[in-house]
Design goal:
There is one protein chain. The protein has about 325 residues and is α/β, with parallel strands linked by helices. It has three domains: about 50 residues, lambda repressor-like DNA-binding domains (434 Repressor (Amino-terminal Domain), Orthogonal Bundle); about 120 residues, Response regulator (Rossmann fold), CATH 3.40.50; about 120 residues, Response regulator (Rossmann fold, 3-Layer(aba) Sandwich), CATH 3.40.50. A six-stranded parallel β-sheet has the order 2-1-3-4-5-11, sandwiched between helices. Helix 11 links the parallel strand 8 and strand 9. Helix 1 packs across helix 2, helix 5 packs across helix 13 and helix 10 packs across helix 11.
Length: about 325
């Protein structure tokens, strides 16, 4: 049977200190007495604990880099860039720098690579790592947080997408629409599922008809082509788009056809105010800021003893505007 890899708990037991003290020796060494830190490093070396780049740097008493990783999906939505603005600005205030990793098809290899890098912490956008990846983060004492997605086991900052979908249906009905449609994300992400379920619930509560739900690529082109297809095949007077980018394409299609319909997007990207698009706002900048605050706190207080993860859920907000047709 393969011998288990030593952990900070093993080091703590040998030295009769708390696991959090051991963790701080690696993540915030300035917060640990020099003599205690020296003993921790000696035992870590003896036990061959975490033979990563970070551990080797600490054993050599070299200054660690103040880097926080941000892992992102291959296909990046414009909303993610708004999140990154908040992350980068507040990391800078804490004297840390952002390094971005792309989650490719073989995500496990990427997570393995990340766990062995010289990072103070990790923010993961829109993805829930596997149990194997979480275990690896644990072994390498790498604090991590999920952003824009919910996971019961992890620290996370996310938006109530069910409420957002419901707000979209209420807005369309308030504009006089009675036959509604949704143009969604073909990838069937958890965000798509939650927004669609919220939209359907709102339609039921409002007593109107959901005529059509159709999925396409998340792009302006996808919104443009699917809007034209929808209007050729169905009679609708209100359309909810998965995101603002798709709604921009839909708006272009409606203008070309000379048709006015009630439409609503999702995200509230900067361009939406310029074109007068009504949308469901996600507080991207605030979410980025809050994720950094939680992660920085964890970097200096991290302990792998059982504790309840921090879950921060933001309610989206309806932004009503007037389109200049």
């Amino acid at each position: 049977m393969k011998k288990a890899q030593p952990s900070i708990v093993d080091i703590a037991k040998e030295l009769h200190v708390s696991p959090s003290t051991v963790s701080r020796a690696f993540t915030c060494p300035e917060k640990v007495k020099p003599e205690t830190r020296e003993k921790i490093l000696e035992v870590a070396e003896k036990l061959k604990y975490t033979p990563s780049k970070l551990a080797r740097k600490l054993v050599k008493k070299e200054k660690t880099l103040s880097l926080v990783g941000v892992a992102m999906p291959q296909i990046v939505q414009p909303f993610f860039f708004e999140l990154l603005k908040g992350i980068q600005e507040f990391l800078h205030k804490y004297g840390k720098h952002m390094v971005v990793f792309q989650l490719e098809e073989e995500k496990e290899k990427v997570y393995q690579f990340i766990s062995e890098e010289i990072l103070d912490g990790l923010i993961i956008l829109g993805d829930i790592p596997s149990q194997q990846a979480k275990k690896r983060f644990h072994q390498h004492t790498l604090p991590y947080l999920l952003l824009d997605i919910y996971d019961e086991e992890s620290n996370c900052v996310y938006v109530n997408n069910m409420l957002g979908g419901k707000l979209a249906s209420q807005y369309l009905v308030s504009q006089g629409a009675k036959k509604l449609a949704m143009i969604g994300n073909i990838d069937a992400t958890i965000h798509q599922i939650e927004r669609m379920n919220g939209f359907k619930r709102g339609v039921e509560e409002e007593g109107v008809e959901l005529v059509y739900t159709v999925m396409t690529e998340v792009s302006e082109k996808g919104g443009y082509e699917m809007t034209k297809k929808l209007l050729r095949e169905k009679e609708v007077d209100g359309i909810f788009y998965f995101c603002d980018t798709m709604a921009y394409g839909g708006l272009k299609a409606l203008r070309e056809l000379g048709i006015k319909k009630a439409i609503v997007g999702y995200d509230d990207l900067p361009m939406s105010s310029w074109v007068g698009l009504s949308t469901i706002r996600q507080p991207a900048f605030e979410m980025g800021k809050r994720s950094v605050e939680i992660l920085i706190d964890y970097i200096c207080k991290i302990t792998f003893e059982k504790s309840s993860p921090i879950h921060v859920c933001y309610d989206p907000l309806l932004i009503s505007r007037q389109i200049l047709w």
